Amino acid sequence: MMAEPLRIGILLSGKGRGSNMLALLRACASGEIPAAPALVVSTTPDAPALARAQAEGVATRVLSAEAYPAPGALDRAIADAMEGAGVGLICLAGYMRLLGPEVLRRFPNRVMNVHPALLPAFGGRGFYGRRVHEAVLESGTRFTGVTIQFVDGEYDHGPIIAQEVVPVEEGDTVETLAARVLAAEHRLYPRAVRLFAEGRLHVEGRQVRVRPPHA
Fold first, then answer.
1. What residue numbers bound the domain in which 157 lies?
2. Closest to 147 (Cα-Cα) out of 199, 184, 110
3. Which of 115, 133, 157, 186 is catalytic?
């Protein structure tokens, strides 16, 4: 009897376009990721990404902080929604809040995030989106990139799964650099999720080991 495919939940906030979400949804649809998207949850009611997820035929839910004002209530609501949809892996795609302990307790080493820099550089509280690329350019570093990691209870701190280097080119602006980094995100995030779906990721402390493919 064949095992059920991994069911993926995507969590987002803000009013981004949802391009990483779409990259994951379409990688599932093409078979690049052996998994099925189960649910997209947004904490922003009018997030443009919700309409894009619906257009791809994926179920969506809105869980706003205003609707769950009690301490820990939003965290529990997110965990309940993901569990109720049978989600085995949560992928953050522009989620700007710090996940609470309830989600992390119920999904240990089963929450992934993408960050637009090579962690641990240019990470932590306040380092997201445009701010990351501004800091990279101001620093004079010659390389930035993308990091995929498992999420823990701190910003940009969890075990690193995969990274891709993106050179900083002469004359780069925030916009040109961000565009190249985003293209790398769209390549690397589906690869990392595929490794998880194939059962090839194993966490040992702060290290993520990638097992070889099944013979």
1. 113-215
2. 184
3. 115
**Is residue 53 classed as helix, strand or coil in its secondary structure?**
helix
Residues 77 and 160 in one domain: no
Which pLDDT does position 1 carry in this prediction?
A: 46
Write down which residue in 108, 138, 171 finishes a domain: 108
Q: If DSSP codes are grouped into helix, strand and coil, which group holds residue 206?
A: coil
Q: What is the domain count for the chain?
A: 2
Q: What share of the chain has pLDDT > 70, as a percent?
A: 98
pLDDT digits (tens, 9 = 90+) for 146-164: 999 999 999 999 999 999 9
Query: DSSP of 159-184, one letter per residue?
Result: PEEEEEEEEPPTT--HHHHHHHHHHH
If we measure between CA atoms, which residue out of 134, 133, 159 comes closest to residue 148? 159
- Residue 3 pLDDT exceeds 70: no
Question: 82 and 38 in one domain?
Answer: yes
Q: Is 214 a catalytic residue?
A: no
